[in-house]
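Re: weekly structure request thread

Next one in the queue (224 aa):
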Amino acid sequence: MTQIAAKQPTKRRQPAANPALSREEIARVALEMGSAEGFEQLSMRSLARVLGVTPMALYHHVKDKKDLNALIVDSVLSLVQVPDADIGDWKQRLAELTRQHYVERTKYPGFDVLLYETRITTQGTRLMEGYIQVLLDGGFSQREAVLGLSVLYTQGFGASLLDRQLTGGAQRTGKDLPKANSVSVASHWRQLSDSEKSEFFRTIRHGILVAGLESIRGTMPDEE
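Done, posted below.
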């Protein structure tokens, strides 16, 4: 009497990844959609629809919305290069690095907020290390350089938040603008954000930061 082999359970086949789809293409389209519609409104399903693929195909390339946000951020930050030492002293290098960072992140409406709300990414880490290295090369101790980075980061985050709240950027995401008596503050901030004046006032803000960094250099040596 012949034995009948036990039937092995069949494994469910996972859908194959779309070979025409890449993380670079996903980042490019997501950046366009987020800039036009608001990054908070961007979803995996809506992105898949525009890309012409199923949501499952998209998940082969990005794990979830957080991973998508990190991919978008890195696609922009990768364009920022840390200046070499041969372009000048630490102040000139810091100014150039800050300028590049500002130019790239302000090309896309709402990207500033996405940048500071997203977890620290690979390219974000590279740039933070770049800022620290510029300060170390300028004679700052490790402690002073890290403190300097925190000041630069805080200023950038604060400026982005104010811009969102005081220039109407929050309206697109459905969040209310502040109802406090900040009319004059909003008016002045809009003037600072005017395209013809923004470069001038950004330079002033950077100058204030550099003066502050200069004041702490040599005051907090690293502990041995």
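The chain has two domains: 23-75, 81-216. The two ends are 83 Å apart (CA to CA).
Next request, please.
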